[in-house]
């Protein structure tokens, strides 16, 4: 075998090994998307009931709460950025990070100081590499977040928002995550979590015609709101974590699918080149033989004379 | 037809139980509260404790609930809990072990959780 042909054969072998790996990763990601979607669906009843309750308290009483009142002039905001621990997901992480950067810029233009809270190793690495300050970060659960993880993330954020701004607290809480629209579409977006805009929450409950009854609060409206709002934040963060996880798996699946397709294409091209090289080799051998034979014939013809 | 109310017991990550009932007893921060059909709209904060649901076919469902809310309106009762377990999902022996361990370690929160589970499991 000629050197050229051997090189092609070796490359084909290595590309097909890669193809096998990416194909496996694609299938794993596909099954995980389904699982993650199921988790999103399972958490929906709790989220809708909670949203309903928040709307009921918010509209049914004149209670003022630090989590629902806008600061007169907000000076500090917290951003919670949800990324994944692992890459190989196309533009998933860079899109989320880009959305966070844009939001940071906007908030800073408005004269607010921004504290970054980050979930996922990718986001942490991005911030550390640029030597930016990270208020707090969490890693290790982005593939399959549980409610306990959401609570862990929410605790310091709620604490920060309840603290006075002068003592290092924040006035606003924004969240940047990747919304799972469909298998093919996932969009990175930012949303303001706190202070709560009750009108928006009410819209989310979709039932516009429905008039909420006048509730009896047990023990009192303030206490209910006190207990309700942190849970609401946790549930929103949980939902965002789940959607982020589903989006990440979908992005991985897509990235791995195109990697597999590319590998297939590459194998085709390489086998064509290898065939051509083999043909060239054979042609060369034949012409060498023919050349050698005619040289020999010429030589014998000369000696006859 | 006996009056009924629709009950949804949901935990943060799943729906635990849903169905028709005639009476639901839950523990709020200001004491036990029983809700029957036609109750005034209510929104309350739950303590950790067992929740008893008398179903319309005469049975009883008991669940251990760890923190959450109860809301009632239009004959629909929602029990929202971060963690909720039906009594027949609870492994009594394991919970007893957990209770002992919590007592030994002086972990008050874990002790209370295990205690609530045990009470729910035995109240069946």
Automatic annotation (TrEMBL), chain A:
GO cellular component: plasma membrane; proton-transporting ATP synthase complex
Gene Ontology biological process terms in this record: proton motive force-driven plasma membrane ATP synthesis
Secretion signal span: none
Localization annotation: Cell membrane; Membrane
Keyword vocabulary terms for this entry: ATP synthesis, Cell membrane, CF(1), Hydrogen ion transport, Ion transport, Membrane, Transport
Coiled coil residues, start to end: none
Membrane topology: Peripheral membrane protein
Molecular function in Gene Ontology: ATP binding; proton-transporting ATP synthase activity, rotational mechanism
Main location as per UniProt: membrane
Family: Belongs to the ATPase gamma chain family.
Stated role: Produces ATP from ADP in the presence of a proton gradient across the membrane. The gamma chain is believed to be important in regulating ATPase activity and the flow of protons through the CF(0) complex.
Subunit-level organization: F-type ATPases have 2 components, CF(1) - the catalytic core - and CF(0) - the membrane proton channel. CF(1) has five subunits: alpha(3), beta(3), gamma(1), delta(1), epsilon(1). CF(0) has three main subunits: a, b and c.
Descriptive protein name: ATP synthase gamma chain
Native source species: Streptomyces griseofuscus
Automatic annotation (TrEMBL), chain B:
Compartments, as annotated in UniProt: Cell membrane
Membrane topology recorded in Swiss-Prot or TrEMBL: Peripheral membrane protein
Biased amino acid composition, Basic and acidic residues: 101-118
The UniProt record lists the keyword Membrane: yes
Highest taxon in the source lineage: Bacteria
Xref: InterPro entries: ATP_synth_F1_dsu/esu, ATP_synth_F1_dsu/esu_N, ATPsynth_dsu/esu_N
A molecular function (GO) term: proton-transporting ATP synthase activity, rotational mechanism
Entry annotated with the keyword Metal-binding: no
Family: Belongs to the ATPase epsilon chain family.
Function: Produces ATP from ADP in the presence of a proton gradient across the membrane.
NCBIfam families: ATP_synt_epsi (TIGR01216), PRK13442.1 (NF009977)
PANTHER family linked: ATP SYNTHASE DELTA/EPSILON CHAIN (PTHR13822), ATP SYNTHASE EPSILON CHAIN, CHLOROPLASTIC (PTHR13822:SF10)
Protein name: ATP synthase epsilon chain
Gene designation per UniProt: atpC
């Amino acid at each position: 075998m000629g050197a050229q042909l051997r090189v092609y054969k070796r490359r084909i072998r290595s590309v097909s090994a890669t193809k096998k790996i990416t194909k496996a990763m694609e299938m794993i990601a596909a099954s995980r998307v389904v699982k993650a979607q199921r988790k999103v669906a399972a958490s929906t009843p709790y989220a809708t009931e909670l949203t309903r309750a928040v709307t009921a308290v918010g509209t049914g009483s004149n209670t003022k709460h630090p989590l629902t009142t806008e600061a007169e002039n907000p000076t500090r905001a917290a951003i919670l950025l949800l990324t994944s621990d692992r890459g190989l997901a196309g533009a998933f992480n860079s899109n989320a990070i880009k959305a966070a950067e844009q939001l940071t810029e906007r908030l800073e233009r408005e004269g607010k100081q921004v504290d970054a809270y980050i979930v996922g190793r990718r986001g942490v690495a991005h911030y550390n590499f640029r030597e930016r300050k990270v208020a707090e970060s969490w890693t290790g659960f982005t593939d399959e977040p549980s409610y306990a993880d959401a609570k862990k993330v929410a605790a310091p954020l709620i604490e920060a928002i309840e603290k006075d701004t002068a003592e290092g607290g924040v006035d606003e809480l924004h969240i940047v995550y990747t919304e799972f629209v469909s298998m093919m579409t996932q969009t990175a977006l930012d949303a303001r979590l706190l202070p709560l805009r009750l009108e928006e929450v009410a819209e989310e409950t979709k039932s516009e015609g429905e008039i909420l009854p006048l509730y009896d609060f047990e023990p009192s409206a303030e206490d209910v709101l006190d207990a309700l709002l942190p849970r609401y934040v946790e549930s929103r963060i949980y939902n965002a974590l789940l959607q982020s996880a589903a989006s990440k798996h979908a992005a991985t699946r897509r990235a791995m699918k195109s990697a597999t397709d590319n590998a297939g294409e590459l194998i085709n091209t390489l086998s064509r080149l290898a065939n051509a090289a083999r043909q060239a080799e054979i042609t060369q051998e034949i012409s060498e033989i023919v050349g050698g034979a005619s040289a020999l014939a010429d030589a014998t013809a000369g000696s006859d004379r | 037809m006996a009056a009924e109310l629709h009950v949804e017991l949901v935990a943060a990550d799943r729906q635990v139980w849903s169905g028709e009932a005639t009476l639901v007893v839950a523990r709020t921060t200001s004491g036990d509260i029983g809700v029957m059909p036609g109750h005034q709209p209510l929104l309350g904060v739950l303590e950790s404790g067992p929740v008893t649901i008398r179903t319309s076919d005469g049975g009883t469902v008991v669940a251990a609930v760890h923190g959450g809310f109860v809301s009632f309106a239009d004959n629909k009762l929602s029990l929202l809990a971060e963690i909720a377990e039906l009594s027949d999902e609870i492994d009594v022996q394991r919970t007893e072990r957990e209770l002992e361990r919590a007592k030994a370690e002086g972990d008050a929160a874990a002790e209370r959780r295990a205690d609530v589970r045990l009470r729910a499991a035995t109240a069946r």
